Amino acid sequence: MKKIAILGSTGSIGTQTLEVVRANGDIEVTALAAGSNITLLEQQIREFKPYLVCVWDEEKAEELRIKTADLPVKIVSGMEGLLEVATEPKSSILVTAIVGMIGIRPTIAAMEAGKDIALANKETLVTAGHIIMPLAKEKGVRILPVDSEHSAIFQCLNGEQRQGLRKILLTASGGPFRGRTREQMKDVRPEDALKHPNWSMGRKITIDSATMVNKGLEVMEAKWLFGVEPENIQVVIQPKSIIHSMVEFTDGAVLAQLGTPDMKLPIQYALYYPERRYLAGDRLDFWKLKEITFEEPDMENFRGLALAYEAMKKGGSMPTVFNAANELAVSDFLNGRCSFLGIAERIEAAMQAHKAIKNPAVEEILETERWTREYVTVHC
Ligand code: NAD
Ligand code: MG
Fold this sequence. Notes:
The chain is an alpha/beta fold. About 50% of the residues lie in helices and about 15% in strands. The chain has helices at about 10-25, 40-50, 60-65, 80-85, 105-110, 120-140, 150-155, 180-185, 190-195, 205-210, 215-225, 265-270, 285-290, 305-315, 320-335, 340-355, 360-380; strands at about 1-5, 25-35, 50-55, 75, 95, 115-120, 145, 165-170, 235, 245-250, 255-260. The chain has a seven-stranded parallel β-sheet, with helices on both faces. The protein has a four-stranded mixed β-sheet with strand order 9-8-10-11, covered by helices on one side. The model has no long low-confidence stretch (mean pLDDT about 95). Bound molecules: nicotinamide-adenine-dinucleotide and magnesium ion (MG).
């Protein structure tokens, strides 16, 4: 029986992973980790019977210990707890459905322990891709993409020789504000930005989709996953999210993966790769769909994407600055302490003030994160 552990089990990807587990009935969940939603965690423990669970917050962990005293489950907390879940000995796959670069240490620890990674947590690859990808090779573990675009690319590359790959065509919906100018976005409120046209996702990635920072993070994610240079990754706006991404080969052939927008497909594909399983849900009806349209991304008004390319070209610790400034700015935006356009402005200010370190080690990445948060807090 396949055995998995999940970081971020109460979130959008985490709960959908458990739906896939429930529907298939042949995966054992050995360990879970989440931030603070202990009501949902308790339900998950009773249904999926993991024997190890981490709650980030120690007080909540204590509450959960009391609630689950009748069960044979060990409850841990904090970073030590996350590392314990990530390296839990029985599992062979770690699903990284946690949000933010807090995923770096647990992901590395799981790989050191020989586990495959079903990777949703793109912030980890963006900031530490230069450590993660060589480590995967060294340890002989697989990084299985869960992000829908990267899963699409992964599916298109199945059975192909990598030297034949010329270009990645990363599709993007353009988010809820596609077609707007900066002037038209200056008064955007969190409740407007939280309405994504096609996907229902966690709050942080939904804001990232509205600013197009998400697509910027995904360009960096694709660079690491598929070893493609930034100039060969082209973002293509495809507003309905039907084409999940495409690849172009040296002979001019373009392969694409299409489907209705449903994250359970890439999650299930990662868990069972290379096997394809039945997945309930709507199928594409091309007679009803009629057309699929394409646009060029607007990098003038959506600065987040342009800054991501800049961070990627500078490399080293610059993507960490891009990501850390964004994580803080998004949280400030959601709490009413930063305007919508202020998100990209903060990223840009932090990037301008930072002198990139080449090949940063984990400690230097975490130190750069601290520096960025302090810089943005003091100067923006
Ligand atoms: P979410 O906010 O819905 O869920 C995040 C999960 O992480 C929750 O379970 C939360 O409790 C947990 N978490 C947060 N901080 C934690 C901490 N300190 N310790 C332990 N657990 C913690 O987020 P999401 O939308 O599921 O996204 C998760 C990751 O997947 C992100 O990196 C996102 O970019 C990526 N992703 C999401 C989608 C999507 O459709 N939601 C698609 C592609 C990629
Ligand atoms: Mg995506």
